[in-house]
Amino acid sequence: MHYIISDIHGQITAFKRLLEKIDFDGCRDKMIIAGDIIDRGNYGIELIKFIQPYVEAASMKMLIGNHEKFCLNYIEGKLDDFSYKLYGGAETINSLNKMTAESKNELYLFLKNLPIYEEIRTKYGATVVTHSGLLKNCLIYNNDRTINVIHSIEKAADINLFDFLLSDDIHYMNDSELNSLDKFMIVGHVPVLKLNNDGSNHIHRKSGYICIDTGAPFIEKGGALSCYCVETDEQIYS
Fold it and tell me: With the CA atoms of 36, 19, 212 and 73 taken in that order, what torsion angle do they form, in degrees rounded to the nearest 10?
């Protein structure tokens, strides 16, 4: 089976419980983690260490999210403690302070080399998984006036990866624009609690894309950790 999960935010116990629930087998199953493993929760760095063997074995693929970018900027000295804490990085800072210089550099290289998107096949056809979606001022059109999803993502990331990973533009595109996407999209980044009219934690579905960030760090508001199963087109909660 193929699974996609996003915005785990340090919820390592819930993540392990979810793996048990879906009976995840690294020799048989595949999982894409669409960014934001760290921050907000207490065990982001531990979670990265937990998934790294799966990544090395190619049973999991982790994509970069804005919180991984925050961490990179912090390690590079481009983001100060106060600002990173405002982004939810307090526990990540504590973990980083306990790491050796060698371990911190290994983490840096791991995060630095995370891909921005992954192409897969789903019931919706050719599909692109990425953390945030699209940046409207970086859209690239094909000759038939459809929006080239891959080229649009690459252009946005090349111009300003930080802005791209923070973008929520896809949720404000009109139906005509969404119907023009040349590939279906699966994104995270914005909790569905903010997108669904009923405030539920169910996958947010619109023409052209779905959002699978079900608000793992916001349990008190109805959020939960879940993953999306490609074969069944359903979500499974931890």
Answer: 10
